[in-house]
Write a structure and sequence with these properties.
With 106 residues, the chain is an all-alpha fold. 80% of the residues lie in helices and 0% in strands.
Length: 106
């Protein structure tokens, strides 16, 4: 169950990272409210996962999911560049996340 919490925490991290773009420095009310809610949910789910997962593994996986997901949303939806080096770097992060998952104690 901890890995499910951690995965969902990563999804909400993507949501709040993308949401930050739309808050315009927290000057827009509803995007700011939604971003803060996504942050709270992400942190709460991460906290639940830490009841059983090692902190180093959980934090690295959480930030990795957020980084990869945010980069992909940027490329696929927001029109950011999709060059080969950028994609290779994303794949390296995914490999690191998978490696941490498969070598974790729990």
């Amino acid at each position: 169950m901890a890995w499910i919490y951690l995965s969902l925490a990563g999804v909400f991290e993507i949501a709040w990272a993308i949401g930050l773009k739309y808050t315009e420095g927290f000057t827009r009310l509803w995007p700011s409210v939604m971003t803060l809610i996504a942050m709270a949910v992400s942190f709460a789910l991460l906290s639940h996962s830490l009841k059983t997962l090692p902190i180093g593994t959980a934090y690295a996986v959480w930030t990795g999911i957020g980084a990869v997901g945010t980069a992909l949303v940027g490329m696929l939806i927001l029109g950011e560049t999709r060059d080969a080096v950028r994609i290779l770097c994303i794949l390296l992060i995914v490999a690191g996340i998978a490696g941490l998952k498969f070598t974790a104690n729990h």
